[in-house]
Write a structure and sequence with these properties.
This protein is α+β, with helices and mostly antiparallel strands. The chain has one domain (26-116): Roll (Pnp Oxidase, Chain A). The chain contains three helices and seven strands. Strands 2-1-5 form a three-stranded antiparallel β-sheet. The protein has a two-stranded antiparallel sheet with strand order 3-4. It has a two-stranded antiparallel sheet with strand order 6-7. The protein binds flavin mononucleotide (FMN). Residues 27, 42-46, 59-62, 65-67, 90, 93-94, 96 line the site of flavin mononucleotide.
């Protein structure tokens, strides 16, 4: 059978983004350690529950993400669910080149994955 090719969209990337932005979701920061033990984390709203038994969640990572190597080869990650007043933290963890963990208080979870403390003095 001949594969059906998707037609190019009749809308701009800007319009698509605006449409997706109308869907409210929770926002998380997914954290881990890279192979050298360095801190890794990014803002992600693709987090979702999948199953209670077995206990499964999912989230999606862009192929272009600088953290792809750490997440694809690492053993553990942590999902930090943000509160409404942590927007600045979400913005920082989505920004390339930012010192994401500066002044961020955390403890270590399984595999050393950072568990962000829920503190008001967070940015
Ligand atoms: C609200 C919000 C949600 C995001 N959700 C995702 C996501 O689910 N998956 C993803 O790969 N990137 C997502 N991003 C973009 C990443 O946070 C951003 O590209 C990433 O931090 C780039 O850094 P990295 O390349 O070091 O991972 C989101 C950004 C924002 C602001």
């Amino acid at each position: 059978m001949t594969p059906v090719k998707a037609r190019p969209p009749a809308f701009s990337q800007h319009e698509f983004r605006a449409a997706l932005g109308m869907f409210a979701t929770g926002v998380t920061i997914v954290t881990a350690r890279n192979a050298a033990g360095g801190l890794v984390g990014l803002t992600a709203n693709s987090f979702n529950s999948v199953s209670l038994a077995p206990p499964l969640v999912l989230w999606s990572l862009s192929r272009q993400a600088g953290s792809m190597a750490a997440f694809s080869t690492g053993s553990h990650y942590a999902i930090n669910i943000l509160a409404a007043d942590q927007k600045l933290l979400a913005d920082r963890f989505a920004l390339r080149g930012a010192d994401r963990f500066a002044d961020v208080v955390f403890t270590e979870g399984a595999g050393g994955a950072p568990l962000l403390a829920r503190r008001r003095r967070h940015v």
